[in-house]
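User: Reviewer 2 asked us to show a designed sequence for the structure in our supplementary figure. I'm pasting the structure tokens here. Could you produce the per-position amino acids so we can include them in the response letter?
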């Protein structure tokens, strides 16, 4: 297994920006995810690690080995492509064995390795099937087996679940995670699905427009987003604008655009947030942290009128109009009466749940 370092890597396509200044160190054995919307540069970055693109600037290292201009077959990475890129006219066995043939592994060893890997991805008995006779989920596992059979130091997965239905996605998510933990292999995973990224990754790199927005654990990215983009891309959140009006010990006092007074903790501020009197700040408040008021909280209670009430069985969700702003809240259904559209409601926004994104 190997660590992966991207040292100020840039990729330009003519005048067009591909990715800019990606600077990361991925630990050996880590499950690291590139997350972001379509066109943000995820595949481009992954392809540079695999060697299918060379950086315009910067360096790539596997452990201490410089690989920046090494061709793909000399890098010992296994890659699952966004569209799988399987060979449709070949059988499952031939597809998986392909990388070993290229590497001139002798036939007996190759057969043994292919069979072992087919067992690992639960494809035993499918060796003689043609690719076009397989389901999407089975094809996905062939692609994974083809990447793993060469015993790569680094596994690169580009949206490997995008062609699967919801249930199969979830199952395969567990499968990939299980394999990664079993093999302890450094894995770089590309997705635009935040739930997938959150549930599988040790760390996530959030990208937008070819630039890195934030790198952190799922917990850090969710609770400490550095800007509006990250806050809204990762899960649902309320973004409220406000102006700092003063300080009280370790707390910041903010007046929201519609005149509500809220208090939050200074320590919950991103490095980019300007916390001085008169400065504008963006507050991120997660719906699940907003509670129906008991009437005893004192501070940080806002009142409004319910504009949408949603009962999902497990949860009760409200959208409440608070002055000129709207506040989403989400709570576990504890069997209490459910408010309806037009009802008045008091909501408590706990101080520790306000994050100043800057
Ligand atoms: N070979 C190329 N030539 C020119 N521009 C390219 C090339 N490959 C990618 N780009 C551009 O670089 C940017 C990043 O593309 P990339 O494929 O890395 O995005 P992505 O994050 O993988 O998106 P998706 O989620 O849609 O797969 C895009 O603006 C794209 O148009
Ligand atoms: Mg892509």
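Assistant: Here is a per-position design you can include in the supplement:
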């Amino acid at each position: 297994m190997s660590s992966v370092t991207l040292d100020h890597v840039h990729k330009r396509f003519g005048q067009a920006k591909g990715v800019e200044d990606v600077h990361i160190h991925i630990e050996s054995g880590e499950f690291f995810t590139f997350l972001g919307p379509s066109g943000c540069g995820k595949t481009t970055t992954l392809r540079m690690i695999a060697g299918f693109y060379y950086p315009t600037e910067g360096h790539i290292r596997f452990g201490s080995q410089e690989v920046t201009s090494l061709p793909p077959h000399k890098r010992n990475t296994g890659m699952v492509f966004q569209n799988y890129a399987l060979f449709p006219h070949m059988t499952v066995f031939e597809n998986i064995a392909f990388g070993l043939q290229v590497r001139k592994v002798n036939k007996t060893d190759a057969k043994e390795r292919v069979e072992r890997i087919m067992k690992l991805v639960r494809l035993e008995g499918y060796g003689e099937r043609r690719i076009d006779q397989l389901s999407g989920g089975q094809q996905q596992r062939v692609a994974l087996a083809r990447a793993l059979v060469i015993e790569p130091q680094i596994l690169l997965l580009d949206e490997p679940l995008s062609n699967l239905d919801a249930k199969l996605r979830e199952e395969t998510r567990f499968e990939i995670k299980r394999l990664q933990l079993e093999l302890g292999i450094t894995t770089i995973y590309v997705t635009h699905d935040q739930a997938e990224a959150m549930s599988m990754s040790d760390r996530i790199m959030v990208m937008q427009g070819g630039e890195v927005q934030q790198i952190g654990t799922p917990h850090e990215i969710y609770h400490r987003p550095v800007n509006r983009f990250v806050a809204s891309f990762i899960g649902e959140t309320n973004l409220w604008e406000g102006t700092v009006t003063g300080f009280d010990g370790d707390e910041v006092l903010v007046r929201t655009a519609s005149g509500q007074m809220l208090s939050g903790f200074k320590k919950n501020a991103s490095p980019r947030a300007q916390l001085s009197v008169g400065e504008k700040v963006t507050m991120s408040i997660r719906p699940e942290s907003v509670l129906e008021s008991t009437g005893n909280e004192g501070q940080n209670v806002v009142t409004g009128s319910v504009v949408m009430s949603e009962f999902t069985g497990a949860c009760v969700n409200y959208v409440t109009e608070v002055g000129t702003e709207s506040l989403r809240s989400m709570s576990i259904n504890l069997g209490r009466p459910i408010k309806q559209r037009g009802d008045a409601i008091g909501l408590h926004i706990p101080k520790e749940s306000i994050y100043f994104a800057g």
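For the response letter, you might also mention the following. The chain has two domains: 4-228, 236-356. Residues 88 and 131 are 5 Å apart (CA to CA).
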